[in-house]
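Thread: Newbie trying to understand structure tokens

Hi all, I'm a second-year student working on a class project, and my supervisor (Dr. K.) asked me to get a predicted structure for one chain before our next meeting. I've only ever worked with sequences, so writing a 3D structure as a token string is new to me. If someone could post the tokens and maybe explain what I'm looking at, I'd be very grateful. Here's the chain:
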Amino acid sequence: MNATIRDVAREARVSVATVSRALNGTGNVAEAVRVRVLEAATRLRYTPHAAARSLSSRRTQTLGVVLPDLHGEFFSELVRGIDLVARQHGLHLLVSSYHGHPDEQGAALRAMRGRVDGLLVLAPFAAEATLKAIAGSLSPLLPAVLINAGRDVPGYAALRVDNHGGAMAMVAHLAERGRGPIAFIAGPPDNVEAQERQRGYVDALARHRPGQPPWIVEGDFSEASGHRAAQVLLAATPPQAVFAANDMMALGCMFALAERGVRVPGEIAVAGFDDIPLARYVRPSLTTMQVDIAALGSRAARRLLAQMHGEPDPGDDTVRPQLVVRDSTRSVEPP
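---
Reply by user tm_fold:
Sure, no problem. This is what the structure looks like when written as tokens:
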């Protein structure tokens, strides 16, 4: 049979309450007593009952993570970063997804109530009704951090990526590499990250290529949509450069160009955004705007823990992407 807390108390010659305080790190317990309790627990191979522990402490030792999707390297890297911080603090993760349907996000959030001590929510949808639904689904007593939310939700911390500034930096890089047109593969129209990257493309194009009208092809952040976009671009007079709103579309685009025998970057330069791990291992390696995705997850988790411990929140927090130049644009010589 599994050892109980009473067995540990008997072995260590202390009360059950003292065992609880020693194992949970709460209350005044003399160091010699704490060591004796831990040694007894180790000898008996005692494992605290998670449900009972949660009832007594009113803590679940769990962080909730609600994402638009679970597919793709971006989400796996984000969760990896969150989990690294959680494990450092002896916490576990409960992860849920609403599979890209904003109307299902409220249900995912409500399902977390009573199961987690804090929430991390990736909420990149721009519609005001969606943000109101998020606010209505969150418990005012539950600490939460919103990642890349379309708008502020009063009372909740926000962590954002400077998508507009990152896109402007990428277009400036591509504009330096030649005189031809720069096309853009857009992301989902209701996604604020996609909107901000497209806005950065348009603003930078007006600054660096004032005579060129925006050339925007529809996409949805998937590899397949990048593949389709490349076919659309090749059906016209091809551009000199393609900037995809994320790396997955850039990789799909490069695959389509390779199928048609188009050399990258010799004939068309290709760039993305995010710097997913795969970006550096394809051939040619992909130029991109680097968002350290795992670090973004860790940063969000640390902010959530600070909230849970009653520390003051610093307010809006913005992550600045960095340009990483690789082979997919490097070989294109300036005019």
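A couple of things are worth pointing out once you decode it. The mean pLDDT is 85. The two ends are 77 Å apart (CA to CA). Feel free to ask follow-ups in this thread.
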